[in-house]
Write a structure and sequence with these properties.
By secondary structure, this protein is an all-alpha fold. The protein folds into 2 domains: 6-68, Winged helix-like DNA-binding domain superfamily/Winged helix DNA-binding domain (Arc Repressor Mutant, subunit A), CATH 1.10.10.10; 72-120. The chain has helices spanning 6-14, 20-31, 36-43, 47-68, 70-97, 102-120. It is elongated.
Length: 121
């Protein structure tokens, strides 16, 4: 069974919507990198049972993302914040090299601080 690392990412967003057992099995498989056999032995179920649980959970996670789109929007916001951070950094550099406006420097600094705060949420 090939691992789709997107599932690990989706587990962070929607994992609480799975059953405890599904979340645990998917976490073991994707995040702890355990094999189906290792999970089956640890959980006291068959290897096929583990595979079925993972497949059901994957399907549910993908369906939740398709309907809600939280992970996609998160990545878009993160990418936008990175673009803003880079642009504000360039403005600061150009300001230091050129006009040396205190107001431009302060505003660029505020933008960078705001981006940092939002990135930590």
């Amino acid at each position: 069974m090939a691992k789709d690392m997107k599932i690990s990412f989706l587990l962070d967003f929607y994992g609480d919507m799975l059953t405890d057992k599904q979340r645990e099995v998917v976490n073991f498989y994707y995040n702890d990198d355990l094999s189906l056999s290792e999970i089956a032995e640890n959980e006291g179920i068959t290897r096929q049972g583990v595979r079925d649980a993972i497949k059901r959970a994957e399907s549910q996670l993908l369906e939740m993302e398709k309907r809600l789109g939280f992970a996609r929007r998160f990545q878009q916001v993160r990418g936008g914040l990175e673009e803003i951070r880079e642009a504000a950094g360039r403005i600061q550099q150009y300001n230091v090299q050129g006009s040396c406006s205190q107001e431009i420097g302060r505003n660029a600094g505020r933008i960078l601080q705001t981006v940092q705060k939002l990135s930590e949420l």
